[in-house]
């Protein structure tokens, strides 16, 4: 089972039980009330394990049941569920679509307004990203500059294609950040969350896809400059692409395309560059007791190793070398 760590919120305990009724009740508190039935001759192998780490607007979950189970939550109502099989298989019915899910081949994205029913095969295990409905709908509105009352995705995700592989790899990054919750600043974790929402909305088919296409019109140089100014002023904070678009005064999708054409990089790449520059300045003018790790996290960069690699690629030396040179150490 994927380990996402033992640091769990007190209000969302880890589930670890061989009792079906206990699992139904406990997992229902984490997700939503649902029917749960252990199947077949292997009922004695039922072992529900659910690890969860909650974050603003989303949670990272790893779930397995041991034996084959039937799960019927009906409509999820308040959240979307991205379910990525990391072992075994399942059959998922969402709305009028049935998807055969399998490790490395197919995943599902369940929409809150579509009725869902699932059968997990014996040994199935999933990495599940719960995304609050309000978060996704708000992000869509920022992208399209128009509100969609209910967003409903095509549930099947092809994990062998480029978009599916990107979704899986991005979700694994989020799982890694959850596993080491205390080692990643909030700015990094929010960037990962919003990056996933953007990837789902822009890369997968849903009933609002046409509205996103119509919003794809160019912005002039003024919004692009506003975006750049906002990024440089707020890079160390937990800013999102939606925050940048609001400051620029144009739909996010429009800003993303215009910024890429004008600057040759995405908004989040620009944020990363601004944070690297903040890191550079803090190392060139260090306080007496600052460490490289302190400087990395204070500048909004979330992963020490990746920050060091990006820093070296940009400045031709490691953060430690810059700090030693600034202090006059050999």
Sketch the major β-sheet.
7 strands, antiparallel
Helix content: 40-55%
Backbone CA Rg: 22 Å
Please write the string of helix (H) and strand (E) elements: EHEEEEEEEEEEHEHHHHHHHHHH
How far apart lie the N and C ends?
46 Å
With strands numbered from the N-terminus, the spatial order across the biggest sheet is: 1-3-4-11-6-9-12
Oligomer: single chain
Strand residue content: 15-25%
Number of strands: 12
List its salient traits.
alpha+beta, 5-stranded antiparallel β-sheet, 12 helices, 22% strand
Q: How would you describe the overall organization of this protein?
A:
By secondary structure, the chain is α+β, with helices and mostly antiparallel strands. The chain contains twelve helices and twelve strands. A hairpin with a 2-residue loop joins strand 7 and strand 8. Helix 3 (162-179) packs antiparallel against helix 4 and helix 9 packs antiparallel against helix 10 (292-298). The chain starts with 14 loop residues before the first strand and ends with a helix. Mean pLDDT is 88; it is low at 5-13.
């Amino acid at each position: 089972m994927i380990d996402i760590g033992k640091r769990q919120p007190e209000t969302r305990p880890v589930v670890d039980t061989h009792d079906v009724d206990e699992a139904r009740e406990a997992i229902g508190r984490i997700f939503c009330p649902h029917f749960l039935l252990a199947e077949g001759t292997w009922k004695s192998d039922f072992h529900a394990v659910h690890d969860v780490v909650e974050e603003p607007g989303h949670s990272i979950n790893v779930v397995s049941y041991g034996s084959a189970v039937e799960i019927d939550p009906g409509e999820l109502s308040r959240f979307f569920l991205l379910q990525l099989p990391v072992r075994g298989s399942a059959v998922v019915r969402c709305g009028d679509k049935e998807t055969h899910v399998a490790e490395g081949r197919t995943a599902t994205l369940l929409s809150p307004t579509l009725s869902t029913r699932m059968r997990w095969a014996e040994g199935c295990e999933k990495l599940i990203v719960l995304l609050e409905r309000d978060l996704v709908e708000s992000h869509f509105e920022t992208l399209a500059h128009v509100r969609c009352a209910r967003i409903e995705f095509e549930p099947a995700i092809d994990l062998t294609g480029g978009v599916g592989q990107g979704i899986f790899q991005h979700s694994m990054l989020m799982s890694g950040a959850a596993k080491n919750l205390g080692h990643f600043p909030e700015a990094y974790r929010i960037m990962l969350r919003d990056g996933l929402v953007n990837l789902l909305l822009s890369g997968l088919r849903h009933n609002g896809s046409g509205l996103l296409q119509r919003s794809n019109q160019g912005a002039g140089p003024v919004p692009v400059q506003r975006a750049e100014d906002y990024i440089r002023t707020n890079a160390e904070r937990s800013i999102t692409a939606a925050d940048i678009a609001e400051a620029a005064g144009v739909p996010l999708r429009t800003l993303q395309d215009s910024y890429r054409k004008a600057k040759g990089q995405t908004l989040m790449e620009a944020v990363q560059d601004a944070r690297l520059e903040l890191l550079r300045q803090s190392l060139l003018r260090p306080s007496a007791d600052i460490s490289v790790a302190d400087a990395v996290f204070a500048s909004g960069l979330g992963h020490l190793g990746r920050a060091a690699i990006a820093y070296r690629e940009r400045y031709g030396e490691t953060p430690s070398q810059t700090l030693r040179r600034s202090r006059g150490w050999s």
